Amino acid sequence: MSALILALDTTSREEALRIASLTADHLDAIKIGYPLVLGAGLSIAGEIAALGVPVIADFKVADIPNTNTLICDQVFAAGCSAVICHAFPGGDSLEACVASAHAHGGECFVVCEMSHPGGAEWFSGGVAERFSGMAVTAGADGIIAPATRPARVAALREIIGTKKIYSPGVGAQGAAPEDVKALVDGVIVGRAIYGAADPSAAAREYRDRCR
Ligand code: O7E
């Protein structure tokens, strides 16, 4: 059983709010990122949160510690409940994101292995394992790991123990909730819900399949 997180990658405020309103009852969280925030502004975070669904800011934060702190502080001031960051800038940069998240009562998730085919080029050979170890050391709340490669999710679970795993790649990228729902805490679905003819029905179906 896993939570269902909508990746709301539409680019207009009106469309985002329409989809969020239609689907919110079936979701555990909504993930927003550059497509929506560059199109609609960061204030969209508060507007979505006002619908009663937690908002996860997927900015894949990846800078020096001071800049990471400035970015994360903005994210939480805007009403987000969690932030997603990269591990490759190093442990101090990661710790800055975690500190900002926890200072605001929020959570920090670390991208450890990506779901697209190119992700297998970069994250195999021990890199994802190392990032997962860094997430543990930095006190992060969880990691991002690919639903498209369940065996890799299982391997990273061994490293992070009971920390959370949120897993993208379900729907448009070919994975099914059933592939990973026993391994992860949340499944991330984008196009298969927001691009569906009936987003509400699609969200309900994915929620049921995650249970
Ligand atoms: O393929 P979709 O439409 O279901 O959307 C997937 C979403 O998850 C989209 O926002 C994409 O940017 C994100 N994502 C991946 O697809 N793969 C990854 O490895 C990582 C992410 C991601 O969200 O990273 C932070 C969670």
TrEMBL record:
Its EC number is 4.1.1.23. Pathway: Pyrimidine metabolism; UMP biosynthesis via de novo pathway; UMP from orotate: step 2/2. Gene3D superfamilies: Aldolase class I. It comes from the Archaea. Keywords: Decarboxylase, Lyase, Pyrimidine biosynthesis. GO terms for molecular function: orotidine-5'-phosphate decarboxylase activity. The active site is at 58 (for ompdecase activity), 60 (for ompdecase activity), 63 (for ompdecase activity). Residues 3-206 form the Orotidine 5'-phosphate decarboxylase domain. GO terms for cellular component: cytosol. One of its GO terms (biological process) is 'de novo' pyrimidine nucleobase biosynthetic process. Substrate binds at residues 9, 31, 115, 190-191. CDD domains: OMP_decarboxylase_like. NCBIfam families: PRK13813.1, pyrF. This is Orotidine 5'-phosphate decarboxylase.
